[in-house]
Structures are given as C-alpha cells and as structure tokens.
Specification:
Layout (H helix, E strand, L loop, with lengths): L6 E3 L2 E7 L3 E7 L11 E7 L19 E2 L5 E5 L1 H21 L11
Antiparallel strand pairs: 1-2, 2-3, 3-4, 4-6, 5-6
Length: 110
C-alpha cells in the first residue's frame, strides 16, 4: 500500500488518514508507543470533535494489537499492521458510502 506523505511531528514523523467519520493518526516519535523499536503508534479520532475515540466495532481485530491504555490509541504496530488497519478503514468507509447512497426511483431498496 502506498502511504501518504509523511509530515514532521516533534522529532519524528506523522501521517493522517481522513475518513468520513474518523481520522486515523499514525505517528513515530520519541515517546510514542513503539518508538524504541521503530514501530508506529496508531490513534483513532472522531472526525467531528477530533477527540480520541474507540475504533469502529467492525475493526474487531484491533484487540490483537497493543492497547496503550488511552482511549483509541494503539502502539507497537509494524508497517503491515498499519496497512491492515488503513485498508480496513478504507473498506468500511466505502461500504458506508454505498449504504448511504440514495436509491433512485424505480430501483429496489435494500
């Protein structure tokens, strides 16, 4: 998967992935969960409030990752794990767009 441009963040780097209901922040800097091993910290934020929040329930695999103890923040994620999270969020985002698409006249409803 091709990642977005990385932005400087403190003494490290940050990427932000924007979705309809969530912002996914992926960081690696001194003090982030995983930085000593060169791993990523992943945070879920509510798009409207920009406060940390739990990941969508559809991402039930998140319990496999290292939970930091802070709401919506997971640490020690390697590149393939970040890919998995981003791809799941993209899939969920696309599914939500299809479900909320207005039904044209004459077409069957769900």
């Amino acid at each position: 998967m091709q990642w977005l441009n990385r932005e400087p963040h403190y003494d490290g780097t940050r990427m932000q992935f924007d979705f309809d209901d969530y912002i996914l922040s992926v960081v690696k800097f001194t003090g982030s969960y995983g930085w000593k091993k060169g791993l990523w910290e992943v945070a879920f934020m509510d798009r409207d409030t920009q406060e940390f929040c739990e990941p969508p329930v559809e991402l039930d695999f998140m319990n496999e990752y290292s939970f930091s103890g802070d709401v919506g923040i997971y640490g020690h994620a390697n590149d393939p794990q970040v890919d998995r999270i981003v791809q799941a969020m993209e899939k969920l985002d696309n599914a939500n767009k299809i479900r909320t698409k207005p039904v044209s006249e004459g077409q069957d409803d769900w």
